[in-house]
Specification:
By secondary structure, the protein is α+β, with helices and mostly antiparallel strands. It is built from two helices and twelve strands; from the N terminus they run H-E-E-E-E-E-E-E-E-E-E-E-H-E. It folds into two domains: about 55 residues; about 140 residues, Sandwich (Immunoglobulin-like), CATH 2.60.40.
Amino acid sequence: MDHEKFKNVAAGLQSLVIAIGLIAGGIWTAWIFHQRREAQSAQLQIQELEARTRGRSSLHIELEVRQLGPPTGSTRTLEILARVSNTGSRDTGLIFRERAPLTVSRVEVRDNNVVTFSEPIEAYAYHFSADGRPSRRAAQVLFAGDTDTIAFLAKLPGRGIYLVSFLAEPTEQDLKDTWSALGVRPRSRTSWGTTRYIFVE
């Protein structure tokens, strides 16, 4: 192979190597750019989620029911424990002023699964005030991460299926902040609550 042919082959190889390098470099640059865009997008989503959930109220409520003592004639007395856990990132208030926080309704299941409910039996939570006298709880504050147990008593007219319902009003600030974080207009009636069906012997 003479000198001229060698130069041509070497130049061709050099051009090929440069072309391969440019293609590889372009692919690498595009891959890095794509990875950075994905990372930035994920970071923005995390920041948006944190902003939406920061300071949000969140409660987990469970009801535990037990019958106290044997039946007295046709009546039964139940102790109902509402365990309320503040799973949110802010202190949260419950208000019991407007209505009974706990109700118990007798349930009858008729043909075609039509369910009817009796007039609800209202139950209130009590605590001892500073002067040593029992009084109804008007409100309850739960600090973030805390769990409180609220006890109720209810006298029922007899055996059967009952629906136990616990409801508490949120504070105006909790309600306003929650709807604002969700980006929707506030609703007229919103409550913290849970329900449970039980059978009483």
